[in-house]
Every structure is written in C-alpha cells, then in structure tokens.
Amino acid sequence: MGIKPFMQLIKDFNFFTCQRIFASCTIQNRQLTKRNSETRVKERSSRIQFLQSNGLEQNYDFKFDLTRALTFDFSAGANAFIYEPVGNPERGTTEWKMNRDTIWDEVLRLWTKTRYNQSIRVNYTSPIIKDSCLTGSLFRLVIRSIHLAGIAALGSGSYCNSIENQNIKQLQWKVDS
Q: Taking the mean position of all CA atoms in its chain, how far away is CA 60?
C-alpha cells in the first residue's frame, strides 16, 4: 500500500531549519598607473601623471528550502568604486592629507555604488493527489521579482538614476505518466 493522501501532504510540509546555500564573493581591483609625458619644446619639460582606480564587485547568493515544496532564492550583485583624487602628492603635505581624508570618507561611506541588482524567487510545488486520474501531477507556482538600479556617473552633473523592476508570475502544470 502507498502513502495515504493526508500523509503525503504532511511529508511535503516538513520544515528545514538550515539554509541550503549562503555564498558571498567580493573582488577588489586596485590599479595605479604612472605615466611620464614629455613636451617637445625648446626647453624639455616632463610631467608625471598618476591615474588611480579602486573598484569593488560583490555577489551574494542565498537559497533556503523552507519545506520540500516551498523554496526561496535570493541573489544580489553590486559594483562600486572609491573616488580617488588625481595626482600623487608628497607624503606629509596638506594636499596628501586632503587626498587621504577623501579616500577614507569614501571607505566609511561604503564606497560609491554604480550598479545594484537583485533577484528574488519563491517556488511552490504541490503534488495534486485528490483524484486518482491526477496522481503523479505536479502543480508549480513561481513568483520572481527582479530589481536593477544604475547610478549616474559622478561627473555627469545629473542626479538621475535608472531603476528597473520586473515581476514575473508563472503557473506550471506537469503530469508524470
């Protein structure tokens, strides 16, 4: 004899106490470029340029199976940078202290965000066992929400951000033969 229908429902709603996946990935990219440029005039003069960039990419993934039939997935990603003033002043000067303070202000503000996206998905799968002709059928409801945000460039003079939201609802029916 098989499992009785009400026991199947109880079996499908066993709660799990721990998450299935929690992952975090952070990538920091720091570049310092030193360029020497000479001008061709009667007196030779050279100028040294320092270009600095400090980027950060963060990705998060969290999956939790609340029950065998109900699952929750969350993933997010963000890009950010630290604004570093141009140049490489001598250590100990007031310009050096101002550059250092600017960089530390950026770090304490948790960087300047340039892009953020997140995706949330709730998945419910329920076996339909009421009728004998529907035994083996699965009913699935998927709700998915996506949020994308892009931040305007620092020097653009615009305070406009682009935000895009999507909500997707799917209803699926599967019959196993």
A: 6
